[in-house]
Amino acid sequence: MVLYQLLQKHSGVTKINLYDHKLTAPSELNQVVPIFRGDQTEVLPYDDDAIIQNNDAVFFATSAGVTSKIAPKYMAAHFPVIDLSGDMRLASEAQYTKWYHKPAAPAKFLRQTHYGLADFESAKGQTYIANPGCYATATLLGLAPLVQNDLIEPDSIIVDAKSGTTGAGKTPHAITHFTQVDENLQIYKPNQHQHIPEIMQELQSWNDQVPAIQFMTTLVPINRGIMSTIYAKVKAGVNEDRLTSAFKETYTNKHFVQYTGTQLPDIKQVVGTNNCNVGFVYNLVTHTITVASVIDNLLKGAAGQAVQNFNQLFNYKETEGLDLQTFLP
Amino acid sequence: MVLYQLLQKHSGVTKINLYDHKLTAPSELNQVVPIFRGDQTEVLPYDDDAIIQNNDAVFFATSAGVTSKIAPKYMAAHFPVIDLSGDMRLASEAQYTKWYHKPAAPAKFLRQTHYGLADFESAKGQTYIANPGCYATATLLGLAPLVQNDLIEPDSIIVDAKSGTTGAGKTPHAITHFTQVDENLQIYKPNQHQHIPEIMQELQSWNDQVPAIQFMTTLVPINRGIMSTIYAKVKAGVNEDRLTSAFKETYTNKHFVQYTGTQLPDIKQVVGTNNCNVGFVYNLVTHTITVASVIDNLLKGAAGQAVQNFNQLFNYKETEGLDLQTFLP
Amino acid sequence: MVLYQLLQKHSGVTKINLYDHKLTAPSELNQVVPIFRGDQTEVLPYDDDAIIQNNDAVFFATSAGVTSKIAPKYMAAHFPVIDLSGDMRLASEAQYTKWYHKPAAPAKFLRQTHYGLADFESAKGQTYIANPGCYATATLLGLAPLVQNDLIEPDSIIVDAKSGTTGAGKTPHAITHFTQVDENLQIYKPNQHQHIPEIMQELQSWNDQVPAIQFMTTLVPINRGIMSTIYAKVKAGVNEDRLTSAFKETYTNKHFVQYTGTQLPDIKQVVGTNNCNVGFVYNLVTHTITVASVIDNLLKGAAGQAVQNFNQLFNYKETEGLDLQTFLP
Amino acid sequence: MVLYQLLQKHSGVTKINLYDHKLTAPSELNQVVPIFRGDQTEVLPYDDDAIIQNNDAVFFATSAGVTSKIAPKYMAAHFPVIDLSGDMRLASEAQYTKWYHKPAAPAKFLRQTHYGLADFESAKGQTYIANPGCYATATLLGLAPLVQNDLIEPDSIIVDAKSGTTGAGKTPHAITHFTQVDENLQIYKPNQHQHIPEIMQELQSWNDQVPAIQFMTTLVPINRGIMSTIYAKVKAGVNEDRLTSAFKETYTNKHFVQYTGTQLPDIKQVVGTNNCNVGFVYNLVTHTITVASVIDNLLKGAAGQAVQNFNQLFNYKETEGLDLQTFLP
Description:
4-stranded parallel sheet, Rossmann fold, alpha/beta, cytoplasm (chains A, B, C, D), homotetramer, 11 helices, globular, 29% helix, NAD(P)-bd_dom_sf (chains A, B, C, D), amino-acid biosynthesis (chains A, B, C, D), 2 domains, N-acetyl-gamma-glutamyl-phosphate reductase (chains A, B, C, D), arginine biosynthesis (chains A, B, C, D)
């Protein structure tokens, strides 16, 4: 839904065709997604031949287990895809099956996809872009300066990530019932969150010394927003100035990532935007760095980064369609 | 306020006299604390001679910097005190001044107080009980089985603690304004929270190998409740069974601490009670244990534990006045 | 669940037997209601013969459409029932069918029940007590002084009632999903709420001039609590003093209803208690009285009033099991 | 703050100069309003001569009591002003003093201002525009079809308005402390809200039969958004079709007001936009219409409507700078 809002304002998008797997006959957007009250835009039943024939690119916003089945057809046709699902993010069939508990796409297709962490990996020239998960985005952007520059003990990374309920999908469940979420904190999927392997895959592509990360997720009573609080032991010989310069160097020229210094960011700074704000404090007593990385899970963590990838793919200005302002207050 | 509610229902308490530092003439409770609408109980101006003469014990619920000045008089009189403030918790003048930014009570008095972590240190026979801080209580009860039994690498402790706004006091500040708290997560006092030294003091009394802890606090949009998420590297040779048995042995006979196994507790399980619920998961890949420890900050983290100490001091049944039920739902 | 908590602390209740319609074999409370983690109390399959034989009274906390079928058997046996459902509150079959969209119990049984608005209608000597709905309780207690004393224009009553989500039940629905409730206000069942006919039935028993009420319900992002804001035109010749004296006279001796004067009550004053707080302001310009009436929907609006009725039925002190304190803050 | 965000994206605005009454020397936006972290835009001390000389128009976003003093100078200079404060909305000195408890601007200036309810009163050709209050906007847009077409009993209007906390300003007060707002509903300023007289002034300009309105405000635990629930007795002879056609006719060509039919709007439909959504249900039994009117108090209720007035004043397209999308979800 947020993706549709963004694309409507994108200067390079002249026509958006909407397709839905669950439809058997054309419908209207307000029927399919009631929150779009009054919007009579046509929504068509999913049809891959029609999609490939009538469009220049497609965005998939499907549940796990869907694009693993349909991706090969698009790949075979060299048709540009930006896939917001997790199905094609992992290069390993075994890892996918282990973490998603579903059959993976064939390995030859998994290996052709591009992991679209847009601030580090350009989508230019790619065909099938696996858009990163929300937790993965916040966590990787917090860790990049440290891991890429080899500044922390590689086995010491601990991530305490907190997310609002929009990360949990729209289907009503007991865990997202208002009376359960409100006035509560709930740890879920301990050591089992499916974003762990894509974080590891990317971290190891940056620094093969990282053996594993400790990653926990807590559901907090807010709608939008993720905060990844990241802890790591700083390597002997690395001082605070070196840490600071690593963050500054890494993010000086990245439009969508703001380094906030020792003022750790809060979630309101980024909700409504495609920004990731990261700051850190260093504790000399424990030799531990604490990084706080915040994003809007529906924008930078999903639709916003998808548009960022789309812009790279089609050579639009990086901020095209993403010149957004925070929700104040 | 919560303390007053508890003591009203305590079978051993026949008369509660209320005193307020800010008064110069007697007033009524509903005037001093408007939420006690209609309660015309007399509140007297603070007068230490009168307190000592007319009562059997006193509870202090004052801001930092108050009881450091008045404690010596009560100690000299051997008058029982349960002090909910942080002033007399630390045995070291230097530590107090460093973390509280105020002058400390004289060392000879600081050394006479009892740190009342009631599930581990009995108040029986004590005179001046320094009631622990809310974060300290949640964190220490989560760490006790691990530190007392020497099961974790002592320099690997990381605590990511989350608290509702009642922990921040009733005075209106920008950080606790509804529009700032709502839909937000805010890290505050990074590496500077004044509960760090009392946690360290108690941990080192259990195990002098612990050099320091990494401790961070995040304000979450709830009223009551603390969750301390605790991470530590498990020592080589310690397996999950040993971890489990340590928690079971430590808490089997402790009425107010419930070990929840690998089902990590959420905050709603304890809000409204004097209970601390603790559970853990062990990650074989990272050799890291994650403990979640939850309390109601106003009960177990303040007034409830104060009554628990009061019961120990005066030989009441440990559950007297604390037979509370969770707020459902 | 709240009822079970209350009865556990009731001095006159020696044994609570739990029964569940959905069970076919005995189970444990923690299995049936997961929030009662660790509580291994036996829950038995529903069996009316066993209930009548092994108990002194029964509380029904069933969905609409259940007790209309089972009530006759208990009535025939003259077995005391406190029914928290709406099935037996209306004396008219036609009204029940119209508002509940289900078949009603036979009229001869409907006419034998007692509408248990406990602060006005004593349950003493009754057998089948239909415990009032939550909105009905808040609204009737706000209107009683005005309607009983004929102080308002009978066709001018407008009720704007607001409720937290616990009033909507525990089953996850789109309307109670956190992301839908949070930061939102949702009017639901406009002019169609099933508590309207029981309010009318009781109002007309007090004053047959009241032809109808305008009653609207709004879902607000809180867990517990109802506020009924009630508007009515004051009759010519009735001044503010007369209105005040009517509220004072009506509620002076009612333990569970507090008249707060022109300080209109807020919801926090009553959450956690069996109290209803009512206050009013009178607008001389519009000749309109505005009454605010607040209750905890799970206590005064359900389980608390059920215990109040139980106390009347079995001659216990009216506050037995209901000596509760507000959730502070 | 929201106004500044809107103007930054307005195609007709080439330069925004910021001024602050409290400054004595130039400062930066991030210093004056910390939420604009990193924004080093200059903020100048307030200086009316400089404002008039260096700008084409000015927006005032001041507290009550400020523009009553400074407005005459701008009026004398025929300099375009859009005043978001309440100081210049009422044509009557006596009314201002009664409701605002401050001295009013001289009557000759009060009578020269334009009440800028932008969907009904065009600002074209005006000089001093008093931008309406948030509650007034929601309420007037809900009532306009009924009052302008004389469809309701003029003395029967009752407004139960609910607002989030951003309506209460940014200064921390006890009433807006998170612990007081959260899980609570608080009626405030009963019969005393200062938006009552501007609503009356506008209603009477539409229909001089309306003698008064009953208007109550409740603070709800959300950040942004107002819902005005409006009740009125429908005149004899007016049926539901007539009511429907009045709403349709009134709003068919008004871009920023959407008539939602009998599906009453919720707040999420409009938060983030300059829209007002209005719907109604008619109760044949009570002859009462219930209108729900929702707006984003910071946009349609303040900055958005100010830009709408600015567009009318300077002949921009009505949607210029206001092509906003709702915050989903």
